[in-house]
Amino acid sequence: MYFSVEQRNGDDSGEHSDASAQHALESLRAELDAVDATLLETVRQRLEVCLRIGELKRREHIAMMQPRRIHIVHERARRYADSHSLSPEFFDSLYDLLIAETCRLEDLVINAETVDETPRHNGNHNGGHAGNHQVRHSSVPSANVES
């Protein structure tokens, strides 16, 4: 076991009334909800950075899969788990999920369809549209969700 939890001595003599125990439980759950909100926002921020990385990889023709980087991320998570007496297996699983979602999003960005815009006629009749390219991201979920 990775967390040390103090053992109760089995004495249920009513040290805490049901009402105070319920209040303590509600307080701890509120604390947990706040931690969860922070966790979810942090994951959203991480995925948003990954979308920007995907854009850079697409622009610069960099391969999506970077096994060395994946190894570095996993090793850092394992060291963190070890130094905090947490389960390295849990952190491996957690980062497997995060990396899988990152790869899914980067794949959508990197393989986004590039289309030419229709020429814009704003009184300038040069007829050219060089440089008028856009990347269609309609299938990419927005990571810019307001919190």
From TrEMBL:
Signal peptide per UniProt: none
An annotated GO BP: salicylic acid biosynthetic process
Domain Chorismate mutase: 19-110
InterPro entries from the UniProt entry: Chorismate_II_sf, CM_dom_sf, CM_II_prokaryot, Isochorismate_pyruvate-lyase
Pfam families: CM_2 (PF01817)
Gene3D superfamilies: Chorismate mutase
Molecular function as annotated in GO: carbon-oxygen lyase activity; chorismate mutase activity
Compositionally biased tracts (Polar residues): 137-147
Regions of compositional bias (Basic and acidic residues) in chain numbering: 8-18
Domain of life, source organism: Bacteria
Region (Disordered): 1-20, 116-147
Protein name per Swiss-Prot or TrEMBL: 4-amino, 4-deoxychorismate mutase
Organism taxonomic ancestry: Bacteria, Bacillati, Actinomycetota, Actinomycetes, Mycobacteriales
